[in-house]
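TICKET: design request
STATUS: open
ATTACHED STRUCTURE:
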């Protein structure tokens, strides 16, 4: 569905994306994960055909998305910058979408509007930020485009609405499978939705793998400082923090099974996908604590 090789995007002299490569399969839910400014939105806009690449290769549905009517007709891009005619109320907007999206499911849109308590006779400019994001999400569900892209779709939503959004996304995907890209700062909330993650770090592909393999790539270990330091000699250290005098908690990168029985004096902890991501992309050893050391 989506193939990129050495894909780059520059704005004048500023690099927004550098030599990104990936191969995203059809009918999968892929999380596009990265720290602020990593290049997530740029990548997804290139996929949607909103931006023209600078160098490299990108194919979506077998075509260049920037010049492809096929990609344009079969893609929807959902973010908090969506713009609609302010003269139309929400019901009229929903009616207009049926003209643009051949798979538009009006009954689903109306049911979701009712569930999320969005009055159809109001106007988009009168909605709160969270309610506007909810309306945008409903468009993404009901359009049922073969390629559906959500860029930070839960901006402004409270925790309860986010939970409903994730459940609705999964149920709608199971009912109507399609290729979904979703970026979010809440990886801990969406990891159960995802089949794969594409981690973009410092403008390029850092890791493209399954969620399970991401979690298996790191492990937490704690114990006496000397024992933990001996263990870290055999693995790539990602972080190490003193928990109490003489004891530390470390996170290391693993390349295979860790035979925990060989280290009876250490305690091992499996990390979540979000914890793995944070440690793998940490800007420097010691984290924010390092800034205050000696202050």
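STATUS: resolved
RESOLUTION: sequence designed for all positions
ATTACHED SEQUENCE:
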């Amino acid at each position: 569905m989506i193939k990129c090789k050495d894909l780059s995007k520059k704005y004048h002299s500023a690099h927004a994306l550098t030599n990104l490569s990936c191969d995203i399969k059809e009918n999968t839910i892929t999380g596009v994960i990265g720290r602020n400014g990593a290049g997530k939105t740029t990548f997804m806009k290139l996929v949607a055909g909103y931006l023209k690449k600078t160098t490299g290769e990108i194919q979506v549905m077998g075509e260049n998305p920037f010049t492809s009517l096929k990609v344009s007709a079969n893609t929807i891009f959902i973010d908090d910058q969506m713009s609609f005619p302010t003269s139309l109320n929400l019901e009229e907007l929903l009616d207009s979408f049926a003209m643009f999206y051949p798979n538009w499911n009006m009954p689903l849109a109306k049911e979701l509007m009712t569930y999320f308590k969005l009055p159809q006779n109001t106007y988009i400019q009168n909605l709160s930020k969270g309610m506007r994001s909810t309306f945008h999400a409903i468009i993404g569900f009901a359009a049922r485009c073969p390629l559906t892209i959500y860029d930070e779709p839960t901006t402004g939503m409270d925790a309860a609405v986010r939970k409903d959004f994730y459940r609705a996304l999964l149920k709608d995907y199971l009912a109507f499978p399609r290729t979904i890209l979703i970026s979010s700062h809440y990886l801990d909330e969406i990891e159960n939705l995802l089949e794969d993650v594409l981690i973009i770090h410092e403008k390029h592909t850092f890791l493209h793998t399954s969620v399970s393999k991401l979690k298996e790539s790191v492990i937490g270990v704690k114990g006496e400082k000397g024992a933990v330091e001996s263990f870290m000699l055999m693995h790539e250290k990602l972080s190490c923090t003193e928990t109490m005098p003489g004891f530390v908690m470390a996170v290391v990168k693993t390349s295979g099974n860790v035979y925990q029985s060989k280290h009876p004096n250490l305690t091992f902890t499996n990390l979540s996908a979000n914890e793995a991501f944070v440690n793998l992309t940490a800007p420097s050893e010691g984290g924010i604590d390092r800034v205050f050391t000696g202050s």
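CLOSING REMARK: The mean pLDDT is 93. The chain has eleven helices and 13 strands.
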